[in-house]
């Protein structure tokens, strides 16, 4: 109990026995046997977190995410956040120089300014971090490298080198075990059941046959799961889609540790009349190290059903090691071409394992990535898990009879998505919901409970009495029966024999992610900022008079799986039961997306638009610049504006010019200049001398708070003659 109080009080894990702020990440070697020393030549991919302004970043992220704050919705781009809150460039340079001098290769600072990555051989890593590394093998035949000291229960297995004290927090990557597991899609494996009686808590939440009215191809309907038209209607997606909102212009990132087949998604989409968005895959390691699986297939198909016209789906694939998983949460923020507004993560690790496998440095670095996402206006959602309030597992994958929450869903910067089941009428409207809990048939229930890592966030103060982060925040369909109709043929994937029905909170999460993309699109259409970090808005709605419109409250059943855990004492674990309002079994319940959209349109701040006026009687070539006037229009409190233009020299060069960005208060205007470079001036003088026509078309542009162009004026043309 003393340890738990310490963890909650500081919301970090700096008071773990034997650990300090500068301690290196050290993974346990549970359920594995050491088979010998690691080869000195074996390369390791390492991540070295840097000392940065974590407190300042957290304050800013909360301010821009909280309705009523003067900064609400005024997000900043990652480049600005890196300069304000990341490690100073001098610190980054000193760490890079030291690592290179120690023998590391491919050393680079991450664009966030929060950590440095490097490649080291085992031999170099052992000398640099003062530890011995061994080869280990699990009972399932998985082989990996890890510090020997951890297996021998020795003192700290690694240390920060003296020259890096005060600059680096530790090291991640000395353990190459696949530590993060996906809450794998669960296929139905029980006989048909009668629908559960209203108010009953004795029968499991699964049932068959599916209620409501299905649509789609015969094979999809015959899978016995809910088809897209059913869950989209039930949760209020259909009114938005009918209004033309399909996610156009929006991007969603999926964090995965397995691969999918695009042909499976095409078959699914064809069956249900869906468009397939462009998909970009970002492997965070060798593709050969990432196996195929049913999880990513489930995620892309459910996301496609929710938002079939996304500008793109960005899939970040890793092999599940600590170093790659941390990178997978940062990569959507900085990867070239990646511009996701929503991130969906169906992976997780119970918090006690997270403490051991990632260590202080690893957890802190992951939290920074989530913090940065909130500060730049990105919504992050994660699955709460599929083992109820007992999320930890033994070496065989069976739940352990102790309370534990799932990370990253338990992070205060993440919207945790729990699980329910639905009963529908013929119009596919919800007639009944309960917390997903199938324990009397097969062990599976929506994750939920209290964090042992993080204290209660401010947005939960009104509804949570314990001084711990409570999860989930909301819940969506997750039960395996009827479950989701899915098409999957990847080798070895759960439920991947073609058409099947699967479930899990890992299906509920991309469903909600697609819904948030629709809301973001509608907000953008109305010149309002995107929702960004979702929780403060959810809790404001949940504690207000509009709660019954925004959420479908879930009051039946709970997610306590204690009596059914093999090898346990067959007693309840003591958490958690659903009830009216917020609870740790279902959060606020499930989301009515159409109502959430309507309320977000009222609450989210507007971004401004811009007007442009070219100044008369200009002599651009003589003065080396163009002069114009920009004005902040619309209902925003401020506008970030700039001007750009195209210069066309008849029979000569053409080029683009751009002003710097200016922050203008609402209704204010500013005269600005676009200066020509020396090279451009040379082209212009030559054109004047040769009496060639020079046409310039200038535009004004306004940026939204994430730095994306939100409004562009019509062009104004200037005929330059000297």
Gross morphology: globular
Largest sheet: 8 strands, mixed
Helix content: 25-40%
- Name the CATH homologous superfamily of the largest domain: Peptidase S8/S53 domain
How would you explain this protein's 3D organization?
The chain is α+β, with helices and mostly antiparallel strands. It folds into three domains: 129 residues, no CATH class; 409 residues, Rossmann fold (3-Layer(aba) Sandwich), CATH 3.40.50.200; 112 residues, Sandwich (Immunoglobulin-like). The chain has 19 helices and 32 strands. Strands 8, 9, 10, 11, 13, 15, 16 and 19 form an eight-stranded mixed beta sheet that branches. Strands 26, 27, 28, 30, 31 and 32 form a six-stranded antiparallel beta sheet that branches. A three-stranded antiparallel beta sheet has the order 1-5-6. Helix 12 runs parallel beside helix 13 and helix 14 crosses helix 17. The longest helix has 25 residues. It is globular, with a radius of gyration of 27 Å.
């Amino acid at each position: 109990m003393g340890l738990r109080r310490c963890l909650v009080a500081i919301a970090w894990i700096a008071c773990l026995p034997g650990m300090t702020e500068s301690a290196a990440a050290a993974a346990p070697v549970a359920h594995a046997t050491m088979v010998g020393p690691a080869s000195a030549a074996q390369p390791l991919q390492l991540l070295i977190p840097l000392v940065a302004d974590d407190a300042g970043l957290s304050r800013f992220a909360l301010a821009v995410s909280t309705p009523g704050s003067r900064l609400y919705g005024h997000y900043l781009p990652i480049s600005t956040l890196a300069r304000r809150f990341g490690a100073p460039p001098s610190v980054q340079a000193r760490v890079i120089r030291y690592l290179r001098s120690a023998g590391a290769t491919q050393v680079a600072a991450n664009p966030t300014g929060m950590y440095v990555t490097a490649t080291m051989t085992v031999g170099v890593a052992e000398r640099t971090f003062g530890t011995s590394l061994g080869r280990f093998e699990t009972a399932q035949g998985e082989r990996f490298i890890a510090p020997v000291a951890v297996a021998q229960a020795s003192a700290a297995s690694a240390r920060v080198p003296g020259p890096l004290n005060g600059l680096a927090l530790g090291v991640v990557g000395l353990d190459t075990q696949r530590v993060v597991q996906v809450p794998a899609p669960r296929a139905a494996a029980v006989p048909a059941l009668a629908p559960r009686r209203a108010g009953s808590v004795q029968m499991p939440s699964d049932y068959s046959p599916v209620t409501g009215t299905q649509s789609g191809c015969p094979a999809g309907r015959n899978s016995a799961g809910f088809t897209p038209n059913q869950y989209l209607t039930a949760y209020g997606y259909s009114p938005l889609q009918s209004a033309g909102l399909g996610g156009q212009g929006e991007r969603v990132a999926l964090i995965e540790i397995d691969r999918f087949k695009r042909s499976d998604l095409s078959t699914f989409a064809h069956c249900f009349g869906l468009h397939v968005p462009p998909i970009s895959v970002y492997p965070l390691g060798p593709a050969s190290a990432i196996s195929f699986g049913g999880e990513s297939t489930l995620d892309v198909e459910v996301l496609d059903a929710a938002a079939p016209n996304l500008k793109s789906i960005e899939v970040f694939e890793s092999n599940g090691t600590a170093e790659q998983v941390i990178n997978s949460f940062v990569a959507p923020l900085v990867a070239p071409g990646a511009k996701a507004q929503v991130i969906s993560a169906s992976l997780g690790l119970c918090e006690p394992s997270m403490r051991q496998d990632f260590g202080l440095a690893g957890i802190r670095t992951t939290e920074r990535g989530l913090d940065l996402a909130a500060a730049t206006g990105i919504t992050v959602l994660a699955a709460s898990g599929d083992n109820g309030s007992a999320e930890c597992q033994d070496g065989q994958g069976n739940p352990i009879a102790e309370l534990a929450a799932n990370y990253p869903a338990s992070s205060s910067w993440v919207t945790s998505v729990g699980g329910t089941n639905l009963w529908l009428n013929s119009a596919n409207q919800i007639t009944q919901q309960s917390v997903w809990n199938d324990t009397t048939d097969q062990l599976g229930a929506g994750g939920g409970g209290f964090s042992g890592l993080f204290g209660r966030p401010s947005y939960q103060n009104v509804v949570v009495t314990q001084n711990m982060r409570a999860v989930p925040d909301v819940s969506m369909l997750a039960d395996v029966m009827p479950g989701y109709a899915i098409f999957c043929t990847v080798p070895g994937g759960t439920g991947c024999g073609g058409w099947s029905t699967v479930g899990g909170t890992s299906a509920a999460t991309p469903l909600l992610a697609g819904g948030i993309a629709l809301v973001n699109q509608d907000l953008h259409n109305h010149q309002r900022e995107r929702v960004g970090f979702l929780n403060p808005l959810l809790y404001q709605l949940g504690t207000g008079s509009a709660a019954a419109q925004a959420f479908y409250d879930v009051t039946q059943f709970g997610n306590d799986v204690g009596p059914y855990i093999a090898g346990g004492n067959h007693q309840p674990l003591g958490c958690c039961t659903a009830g009216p309002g917020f609870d740790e079994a279902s959060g606020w319940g499930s989301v009515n997306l159409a109502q959430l959209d309507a309320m977000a349109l009222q609450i989210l701040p507007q971004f401004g638009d811009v007007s442009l006026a070219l100044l008369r009687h200009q002599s651009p070539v003589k003065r080396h610049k163009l002069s114009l006037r920009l004005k902040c229009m619309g209902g925003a409190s401020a506008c970030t504006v700039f001007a750009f233009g195209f210069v066309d020299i008849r029979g000569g060069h053409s080029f683009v010019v751009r002003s710097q960005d200016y922050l203008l208060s609402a209704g204010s205007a500013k005269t600005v200049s676009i200066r020509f470079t020396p090279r451009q001036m040379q082209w212009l003088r030559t054109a004047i001398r040769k009496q060639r026509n020079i046409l310039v078309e200038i535009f004004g542009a306004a940026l939204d708070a994430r730095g994306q162009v939100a409004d562009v004026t019509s062009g104004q043309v200037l005929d330059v003659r000297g």
